[in-house]
Design brief:
heterodimer; A: mainly alpha; about 80% helix; about 0% strand; globular; B: mainly alpha; about 50% helix; transmembrane (chain B); transmembrane helix (chain B)
């Protein structure tokens, strides 16, 4: 009982519970660190492949405004800062946020999904996270470069985008629960197939129920839009792929040290 | 189960112990709150809603907001 500070803590928190509590916290911290590291890679990707398309879109915007006789607003933050420190800050905050969510999902799933190594589970969950938080929402509301989108509808677009993410998460959870239940009765293969099929059907239903939004200007260059969206989704592939690959070994280390700690006591 | 993955886990032939929910929930609440706050500032502040006056936050994370897929402007 050397890990307990006082008898009171021991009473509230028996030693094994305290160890589990610490382990969950360490996993959460590792997840956020892995998220920041993965976001550094994603930043490099976005800097190389995304920024040229952002600049082309801003050039389009300026030309359109000039033709309409409007002057460019004075820059509050310079383009150079937006494309470097700004982009880096946004990417690392995003990476830390989803790294934390990812680690919580990992800490919950580990030991509740049968025999699977921490590294394989990390990759599996990273794939599921990419699908849930990025690919499914982006199929309905794809990322848009500057010059696409009317300021008047920002409220609606933000609300529907976050609704889409929430519904995507619900659909994923329902499909996993149903798939697992069916797997117990009809075998792993059939259960996984049914869960996957249910996921596709529910995604189609949810996406057809939400409003369509298309605010791409008629003369906006299609190639820039396509390349921008490629870069945006590619950035997320780097982020989530990196998150899974970096977090796996970190989680292994935490779980192994927890296990050897158990033996000592 | 491939042995390549489980080689560093001698005991992985059995299902590992899950972390009990009561050890996990406090961290889950803390982590989700923190994540929601960070995603709010990257994705929505000074766009659809605004806690801080002006456009400085929006302009600073502008490129990230676009490239990460959030609605902007």
């Amino acid at each position: 009982m050397n890990s307990c500070m006082t008898d009171a803590i021991c009473w509230v928190f028996p030693a094994t519970d305290f160890r589990n509590f610490l382990m969950a916290g360490r996993l959460l911290a590792r997840g956020m660190i892995a998220g920041v590291l993965a976001a550094c890679l994603a930043f490099l990707f976005a800097r190389v492949f995304g920024e040229p398309q952002v600049n082309l879109s801003i050039a389009f915007e300026s030309a359109r405004d000039a033709m309409a006789g409007m002057h460019d607003e004075p820059e509050l933050v310079s383009r150079a800062v937006q494309a470097s420190f700004g982009l880096f800050t946004a990417a690392t905050l995003y990476g830390a946020a989803y790294g934390g969510i990812f680690a919580i999902a990992f800490a919950f799933a580990y030991g509740r999904m049968g025999r699977i190594s921490p590294r394989a589970l990390a990759m599996l969950l990273a794939g599921a996270g990419f699908l849930t938080f990025v690919l499914i929402p982006d199929l309905k509301y794809p990322p848009n470069p500057p010059a696409v989108g009317q300021p008047g509808t920002i409220g609606l677009r933000t609300a529907t985008y976050f609704e889409m993410i929430t519904l995507s998460l619900c659909v994923m959870a329902v499909s996993i629960l149903v798939g697992r239940r069916l797997a117990q009765r009809f075998g792993a293969w059939n259960g996984a197939l049914c869960g996957g099929g249910l996921f596709v059907v529910l995604v189609a239903l949810v996406q057809s129920a939400l409003p369509d939004i298309n605010e791409v200007p008629a003369n906006f260059p299609a190639v820039v839009l396509w390349r921008f969206r490629e870069a945006a989704i590619g950035m997320q592939v780097v982020l989530w792929g990196g998150l899974g690959l970096i977090f796996g070994p970190m989680a292994s280390a935490v779980l192994i040290s927890a296990k050897s700690g158990q033996r000592r006591i | 189960m491939s042995h390549g993955f489980s080689s560093s886990f001698p005991a992985s032939s059995t299902v590992p112990d899950a972390i009990p929910l009561r050890a996990l929930v406090p961290w889950a609440v803390f982590g989700l709150l923190l994540a929601a706050m960070m995603l709010y500032f990257v994705g929505a502040e000074q766009g659809a809603t605004s806690l801080i006056a002006g456009h400085a936050v929006h302009e600073f994370v502008h490129d990230g907001r676009h490239l990460l897929g959030f609605p902007c402007h």
